[in-house]
User: Fold this.
Amino acid sequence: MDAFLDDVKLLAAGEGGLVVEFGAIISPTINLCVQSFMRMVSASKINGMIEAVPSYCSVVIYFDPFKITRASLTKQIEVILANLQLTKLGDLVRRVVHIPVCYGGVLGPDIDYVAKYTGLMIEQVIKLHAGQPYLVYMLGFTPGFPYLGGLSDLLIVPRQEKPRNRVPVGSVGIGGNQTGFYPIESPGEWWLIGRTPLKAFDPTRSEPFLLAPGDYVQFESIPLEQYFSIRQAVTQGIYQLKVSAEEQV
Amino acid sequence: MITVIQQGDFTTLQDQGRWGYQAWGMPIAGAMDSYAYKMANCLIGNLETAAVIEMTGSGAAFRFDEETLVSLCGADMQASVNGNIIANWSSVLIPRRGELHFGRAVLGRRAYLGVRGGFDVPLVMGSRSTYTGAKLGGLEGRTLQQGDVLYIGKDTFIPAKVQKLTANDIPVFSKTWTLRVVSGPQTHLFQAEAVFRFFSEVYLVTAADRVNYQLAGPKLAMLDKVDVISDGVGLGAIEIPACGLPYIVAPDHGTTRGFPKIGYIIQVDFPKVAQANIGDTIQFQQVTEATAIAALKIERTAYERIKKQLG
Assistant:
């Protein structure tokens, strides 16, 4: 861990942007640094900071150069990095968000292809996909779209060559070594293996986003009837999101 | 009540943008030309956060039920009230049942229409800006259509009058643009020759929407075939995708992207991007961060002075 922290790079992203780069590979350890750093930066309430945007291995801090100079911001960031080094990163508490998914059928039209390509039975595809939690490395692409890590090697399928123009909201897909679900209707090149009745993004909710960077996602296989009953509860605003007792990782 | 009687090419409600949610993947949206946006509100005594209409390429037309003080800024779209041409970068009183028509932009690309009080549409996550990518903000998250009806809000703070910006405060638009650029987080990943060509040759604008500007010109090669892992990307970033031709990041662009960023357009020059049309040429000019900050300071001082003059 400390080896990573010794290599942190501070880079400029315009006169109002500072990139804090923890490495240049996708790894849970580097992302753990990103998440811990984000929590400390958010708590620090640095005057002049506009917002901080975490990704796989870096954080961009946007700031108002008239409220804080780059030099002064850098000093404060260096203090946070020094404290980060002293903190036991393993103590970071994370949420496990449970996402019900109706696999296969009309809601997961590509599951047959995935089964055929991987040489697995459909039941095995579901069992593997819903078998373990996935780390939310970051959100991006569209509002609330999670970049998840942890897909089983057995489920790696090359992406579709021709992207679909419109992937329905809630579609759960896999492509390459990635998996995730679509918060809004958008184009997409993943194979669709199911759909969740939950809305990963709803601007009218007091908390518009279901997931935050650093969370874990646990998919849970549900039958079609339950898909519809949950969807109804979501529409009525009475669905209780299942979040596991916070888990130390 | 204001009725849209002609919709224009791409007409949306915009304000200063939806800040604070980029960590969740929410683009900032907001007015492309932040200077014209600010002036449009300043001319009519609106709050800095009031929503205005942004028109692109070809303008819209509106009918006003009541006498209304409006402002026009940005691209010159040959606006007329009941057939009489009116001055750009000014505020104008539209008579009761008056019709305000905008034509094609003769110079520049985006024009702004402010109304005293701002447009009354719901705040979505703190902003009235339309983000069509997720169908939210503005009027039902979409471009304005013929027949839409808009209402006036209460976003004012001082009395206002019919007035015009002084010539010195009106930016000069052309078809050739010089954009000042500070180095980006991945500038070092490019061959020195590529960086040199980027700053010495001329690019042609081939796409000019709210997500990004695409350019044609010299292709830029990286030192190695480095895969840049998706990371945060801000307004004015210049991305170099695999094809080697630059993209300029605009307000509706995703918050993260896996392209190396060779530089960032300085903040005060982004309004020029907003006004560049397809077919215009762009020359990038390398400047230091000190220059960028000095330019920003000049702009902010000017804004305070204009606010006082118009107030």
